Amino acid sequence: MSHRVVVTGMGVMTSLGQDLETFWSSLMAGKSGVSLIEAFDVSDYPTRIAAEIKDFNAEERFGRKEARKMDRFVQFALAASESALADSGLKIGENVEAERIGVSVGSGIGGLGTWEDQHNLLLEKGPKRVSPFFIPMMIANMGSGQVSISLGAKGPNTTMVTACATGSHSIGDSLRLIQRGDADAMICGGAEATIRPTGMAGFCSMRAMTTRNDEPEKASRPFDSDRDGFVMGEGAGILILESLEHATARGAHIYAEVIGYGLSADAHHMTEPDPDGAARCMKMAIRDAGIEPEAVDYINAHGTSTPVGDRSETIAVKKALGDHAYKVAVSSTKSMTGHLLGAAGGVEAIICGLALQNGVIPPTINLDHQDPECDLDYVPNVPRQADLEIAMSNSFGFGGHNATIVLKKFNP
């Protein structure tokens, strides 16, 4: 028996808001979360802007002792997971057994900040000054580990590390765990915190990021002729997935149903995307959902605002949907949130769920001069009311990792 799976809780940590209401209203207002970086001195960097979370105090939220044991990406993961669990109404040990709720919270890079800080200590003061918490704070699985420890979730516990496809892979694998009966509920998504000197320097050296420093809010411009690279973001997007039977039995609010999951490899290049791989991924997700391509109403695009990436995804959508590609609404919310790397898939699946529930498609802001090679309907600059039934979220990562999630407006 394959169980139907629904979304019953959501939690976000983004530069646009740390709660669903603020986050959604910011998206509907077409607000950009991009600004000058304040975390460290960026005067020597080609890119000096990011979608940085500037008003998060981990010590206030978790207490000084606990906060100091967690890298920033883990703090984001736990904060968003707590919010998502509260939103769902699940109480571990009461209306869900601890052994029947699992965690799959991935990160593309993991504890980069901890790595930097401890490496500096090593160089400046020697090996004896390196913290005993260095390794358990830095490793990428500690998002899932700390969420499990803090919330008491004793079910399946895994961590995905597939670059920018991480969040979507985490959701898709959680879907499978519930479908086959290995868990009644999963806390899943992604978290990332790489707005750090090394992270920024690495992406700058790749020439992957925008250098539109004088206009931060206009810098992320997917599918626009004047785009020149992505804007890094940070934060977390966490969903509570639950079997329909379990959710119905406790009278849970249901945002949407997760009906399809696709994944593929480009087997092509470390960083350059291949549209054939992305197209196969979307086709697999559509097939898994048991729908025709014509049923897709909205695609939340990977849409990073890089010249090559946006063109490649446009080609992939056409290969996957055929003529329907010109009829489907496509938008990139990275134009507002920045690119949250491993957390992007979690945040964007949440956006799809809210779009289905509210009947509104979020826009692609800063789309002033559409690239002729990107010739689909990208919902430019303002949100659009729409009767949505099916939404699809794309995530593509370095290494040729592709993931697509399909969500459906919930019908009992």
Report on the architecture of this protein:
By secondary structure, the protein is an alpha/beta fold. It has two domains: 5-249, Thiolase/Chalcone synthase (Peroxisomal Thiolase, Chain A, domain 1, 3-Layer(aba) Sandwich); 261-408, 3-Layer(aba) Sandwich (Peroxisomal Thiolase, Chain A, domain 1). The chain contains 14 helices and 14 strands. The chain has helices at residues 20-28, 58-62, 64-67, 72-88, 112-125, 134-138, 142-151, 166-179, 197-205, 244-249, 275-289, 307-321, 334-337, 344-358, and strands spanning 5-13, 35-36, 49-50, 101-106, 157-158, 185-192, 235-243, 256-265, 298-300, 329-331, 360-361, 384-385, 390-397, 401-408. The protein has a ten-stranded mixed sheet with strand order 5-4-6-7-1-8-14-13-9-10, with helices on both faces. Strand 9, helix 12 (307-321) and strand 10 form a beta-alpha-beta unit. Helix 8 (166-179) packs across helix 14 and helix 11 packs across helix 12. The mean pLDDT is 97.
